[in-house]
């Protein structure tokens, strides 16, 4: 059951209608064509998020929901040989594709990818300097979001940074966003995510918001930087 407190930061946000196993199967199915479907349209938003995260040499950075792994490459270049990048994704096929990319880019020594669930991150407390998440948080159902962000808070060190990029209920809500939500409601197998309030969710989880921006692809996108107290 969803209690009222878990919904305070998401008024009017639709529920996710697919189960976790259905979401996993969907991303396994589209893994080989994911870049054709999303990478071009989402890339600029991801780059803006990486710029806000501002990873530095020697840091330990986690990406949740890394997809085909392009941001893992960017992060590996930034943290350098003394740093470490960790990636977790629910799709085994995405993990395989990302691992192939790490081998091609010769970053296997500084990037560790695995299949896993963001609601149960397999990392110790206070071990990460930063967390990056793009177009992932909105895939979780509303009652799941607090648990995901609690896990993020657990693994971040005090003062650690988190950047979340995602489709947002903030910004201009026009015809396109209404069509987006209609498709999600009636054809969840085709549109598995929906707009959410990202900064509000991070605040509700106990993070301190440092910077937030609203950008646009074909829908509004929130790009939020927050820190663990």
Throw out a few tags for this protein.
single chain, 229 residues, alpha/beta, Rossmann fold, seven-stranded mixed β-sheet, 7 helices, 23% strand, globular
What does this structure look like?
By secondary structure, this protein is an alpha/beta fold. The protein has a single domain (about 5-225), classed as Rossmann fold (3-Layer(aba) Sandwich), CATH 3.40.50. The chain has 7 helices and 7 strands; from the N terminus they run ααβαβαββαβααββ. It has helices at about 20-30, 35-55, 70-80, 90-105, 145-155, 175-185, 200-205, and strands at about 60-65, 85-90, 110-115, 130-135, 155-165, 210-215, 220-225. The protein has a 7-stranded mixed beta sheet. The longest helix is centred in the first third of the chain and has 20 residues, at about 35-55. The chain is globular and about 45 Å long. Mean pLDDT is about 90; it is low at about 1-5.
């Amino acid at each position: 059951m969803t209690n009222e407190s878990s919904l305070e930061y998401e008024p009017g946000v639709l529920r996710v209608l697919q189960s976790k196993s259905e979401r996993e199967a969907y991303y396994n199915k589209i893994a080989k064509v994911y870049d054709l479907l999303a990478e071009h349209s989402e890339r600029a938003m991801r780059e803006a998020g990486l710029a806000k995260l501002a990873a530095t040499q020697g840091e330990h950075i986690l990406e949740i929901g890394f997809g085909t792994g392009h941001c893992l490459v960017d992060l590996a270049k930034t943290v350098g040989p003394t740093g470490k990048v960790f990636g977790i994704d629910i799709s085994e096929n995405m993990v395989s594709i990302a691992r192939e990319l790490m081998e091609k880019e010769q970053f296997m020594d500084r990037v560790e990818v695995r299949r896993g669930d963001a609601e149960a991150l397999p990392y110790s407390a206070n071990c990460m300097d930063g967390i990056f998440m793009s177009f992932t948080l909105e895939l979780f159902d509303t009652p799941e979001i607090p648990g995901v962000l609690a896990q993020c808070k657990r693994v971040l060190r005090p003062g650690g940074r988190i950047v979340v990029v995602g489709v947002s209920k903030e910004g201009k809500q026009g015809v396109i966003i209404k069509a987006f939500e209609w498709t999600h409601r009636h054809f969840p197998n085709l549109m598995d995510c929906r707009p959410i309030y990202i900064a509000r969710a991070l605040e509700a989880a106990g993070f301190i918001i440092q910077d937030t921006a609203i950008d646009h692809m074909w829908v509004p996108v929130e790009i939020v930087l927050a820190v663990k107290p």
